[in-house]
Design brief:
Protein name: DUF3027 domain-containing protein
Organism: Nocardioides mangrovicus
Radius of gyration: 37 Å
Largest sheet: 4 strands, antiparallel
CATH class of the largest domain: Alpha Beta
Pfam family, one: DUF3027
Number of helices: 8
Number of domains: 3
InterPro entries: DUF3027
Distance between the termini: 93 Å
CATH topology of the largest domain: Nuclear Transport Factor 2, Chain: A
CATH architecture of the largest domain: Roll
Order of helices and strands: HHEEEEHEHHEHHEEEH
Structural class: alpha+beta
Helix content: 10-25%
Low-confidence stretches: none
Shape: flat
Strand content: 15-25%
């Protein structure tokens, strides 16, 4: 459908717009005139179907301007624009936001920002192995000068983000595996406890037959490989019947 406009010159400029478009891109990729969209006083855009392979749903846009008192319109711009049914690339997502767990390959580097709020300088949070009751500041200064220890450690916000992510993940208490378990990880002999603030809620599974072996698990998590798991009588395999010695021969079978 071709829209109407109060500007008679623009309304009658479809042929001029097509001529300018064909001169720019070639007649083989220009389809029928679709509509005229007013853009303002004396300005309108004619849209033409695009027949270029690989661009279904796209439209050629030819913008024209008509100055008051002039007998014809002037072509301002020619562009190819996507229509409502056009196939377009997804919205651009910054590299930092595209990274997902497991995306890194050997040799890849994922740098952290200097102002990453998950990290704070070590002298603000400290490490237990680097602290000293008597001269904590001096020990840290020497360690930093010699290149020992860590420059930054997890901030309170960083620890909270990690704890929330672990607790809500597959190794948390709400996973389907944990919901079906009869025992929780806190009482399992295969649980290796962590050190530091996160040790209050998490440990590492060390059962090679468990789904979460070598993974951080919440104390409220659980699975069927608990160290104290016992089979109930009804879950035990059925006893094997006593063997029967078959002494029949083919001749005996024929007599029956």
């Amino acid at each position: 459908m071709i829209a109407t406009t109060d500007d008679a010159v623009l309304a009658a400029s479809a042929d001029a717009a097509r001529e300018a478009l064909v001169a720019e891109v070639g007649a083989e990729v220009v389809g029928e005139a679709l509509e005229l969209v007013p853009e303002g006083d004396g300005v309108g855009t004619w849209y033409f179907a695009c027949t270029q392979r690989g661009y279904p749903g796209w439209r050629w846009a030819v913008t024209l301007a008509h100055a008051a008192g002039e007998a014809s319109a002037t072509v301002d711009e020619i562009v190819l624009l996507p229509g409502q049914s056009a196939i377009v690339a997804p919205a651009w997502v910054p590299y930092r936001d595209r990274i997902r767990p497991g995306d890194l390959s050997p040799g890849d580097i994922l740098p952290t920002d200097e102002d990453d709020d998950r990290l704070v300088p070590t002298f603000l949070a400290g490490d237990a192995e680097e602290s000293d009751e008597h001269d904590d500041g001096q020990v840290r200064a020497v360690a930093k000068e010699l290149g020992l220890g860590r420059t930054r450690v997890l901030s309170v916000a960083g620890r909270a983000l990690a704890a929330d992510r672990w607790y809500a993940g597959d190794q948390g208490p709400d996973s389907p595996l944990a919901q079906q378990a009869h025992h929780q990880c806190w009482s399992c002999g295969f649980l290796v406890r962590l050190a530091g603030p996160l040790a209050e809620d998490f440990g590492v599974c060390a059962n090679e037959f468990a789904n979460d072996d070598a993974r951080v698990v919440a104390y409220g998590h659980g699975c069927g490989a608990h160290s104290e798991a016992q089979l109930r009588k009804k879950q035990l395999p059925a006893p094997v019947p006593d063997p029967i010695v078959d002494t029949l021969t083919p001749q005996d079978l024929e007599r029956f």
